[in-house]
Design brief:
alpha+beta, 143 residues, single chain
């Protein structure tokens, strides 16, 4: 019993250390160069190795971003977590007509912009709506 508790305590300490210090992943020079080229002035960058790509989680202009790069340094896509006030008016208006905006993410993949919003409707049910950059609804699904 005592050995099990020590093991659990050690696992928790390792988990907290990983949360605080990150994964200690060092991407390729090509990834770092591409990151710096695309996201100058980024703060608190944390890299993760996702086996087939590298993921950078960081802040820029006080907004959380996630960027994915191929192992050779090509930018695959990035996501930007947006306050509702940063949404284009047509998207914000459509979303608010359906309920409360719980979260919103701008996704850029291959220079195609998409807005993914989580909405809580007037019956307190949550769902995702994906919009094009001009406000067309691509997908609606319940969570």
């Amino acid at each position: 019993m005592m050995i099990q508790r020590q093991k659990e305590k050690k696992e928790m300490n390792n988990l907290f250390k990983k949360i605080i210090t990150g994964d200690n992943v060092y991407p390729t020079k090509e990834c770092v160069d591409a990151f710096n080229e695309n996201f100058s002035n980024a703060k608190n960058v944390e890299w993760h190795n996702r086996k087939t790509y590298y993921e950078a989680v960081f802040y820029k202009d006080k907004i959380e971003h996630i960027a994915n790069f191929t192992l050779s340094g090509d930018l695959i896509e990035y996501k930007k977590f947006l306050p509702a006030d940063y949404l284009p008016a047509p998207i914000k208006e459509q979303a608010l007509s359906r309920g409360e905006i719980m979260s919103s993410v701008l996704k850029n993949k291959g220079n195609a912009l998409r807005y993914e919003l989580i909405i809580r409707d007037f019956e307190k049910k949550r769902f995702v709506i994906i919009f094009t950059d001009i406000g067309e609804v691509i997908e609606v699904r319940k969570l």
